[in-house]
């Protein structure tokens, strides 16, 4: 019986590999740990969300989410492309790049610190004590965050998915436990922010020490200037993209207030956790794509994207049906978030764009990446501004959905442009 089941599974696996053009053994082996890690992280995020929904007012929670968005926005002014460049270098055997990346991350964080201090002065002069202290906390802890998170790029490059998953769980567990514990003592958004950033930096630093020792990451000199150049290019590309990812929260806070930001945050929370699972595909694909020529990948790219899109659509339909029940159980104070959450879930359908985008990053397709990271962010920021100004939260959701559709279309077009350019440059 066991032999029959094993044979049937192997036949199914072989058929599925022919259909999806994907190495399922690699996917299951690495993906299992990544999925386990993401599920654990999502579980912790749900724990924090449930606690916030029950113990913290919408006004305080909205202010905390605004301060977090300010922090993530300011990371755009650091060298945010260094982790991706580091992962690519590590995948190619250049371990010495880690120490170079660490120095660059710390030096590159200086503009972020200066802007944070500028915002601190701005809110102080305008008499907003809460946001003054919030921006000061960002100036103190924020610049250290990327350096503490670099271990993930090392593990991704080495395909150490198990350790990466465990590290990701710890990196979320410690801040979450700290936040939940604080909710029973006080409800101060600035203290929440300081706890989150401080615990994240400390945990990331300790994990980094372990990774460096475990893999004996050497201080050898960087073998190629390509790592540094790519890191700077990706950082420049990420400025607009990073700002666009936080534009919805910043605009909603200033245009509609902290309460509406809280409602919006809960509306997008579950779909965003589902999308985070898709990010694992990018992590898995990146080292594979980095080692293969684009002409070898292109024939199977369409099958991968459409197959993934079909699976995502099934998940979206299930979520839309289950959303009212989920909110009634988990977030009863936020039932007014249900409808816009169902609408936002539609944005998940074109999320297969992570596959072609990962290919462009793995091959350092700088021209195409610049185009992508210019068109998409500008469109998203512009559509969010118009949508929120005229239609409120519904407008914000509509802008996000349309942007995601555009993301898939543009990424697929750019991959084909890159393939043509690579083929022409290879022709003598």
Brief summary of the model shown:
The protein has 428 residues and is mainly α.
Explain what you see:
The protein has one domain (8-426). Residues 15-28 have low confidence and may be disordered. The longest helix is centred in the C-terminal third of the chain and has 61 residues, at 366-426. With 428 residues, it is mainly alpha-helical. The protein has helices spanning 2-20, 24-55, 58-74, 82-91, 97-108, 110-125, 129-149, 151-157, 161-183, 189-214, 226-256, 258-290, 294-330, 338-345, 354-362, 366-426. The protein is globular and about 55 Å long. Helices cover 85% and strands 0% of the residues.
Draw up the topology in text.
Blueprint: H1 2-20, H2 24-55, H3 58-74, H4 82-91, H5 97-108, H6 110-125, H7 129-149, H8 151-157, H9 161-183, H10 189-214, H11 226-256, H12 258-290, H13 294-330, H14 338-345, H15 354-362, H16 366-426
Helix pairs in contact: 2-9, 2-12, 3-10, 3-11, 3-12, 4-5, 4-8, 4-11, 5-7, 6-7, 7-10, 8-9, 8-10, 9-10, 11-12, 11-16, 12-14, 12-15, 13-14, 14-16, 15-16
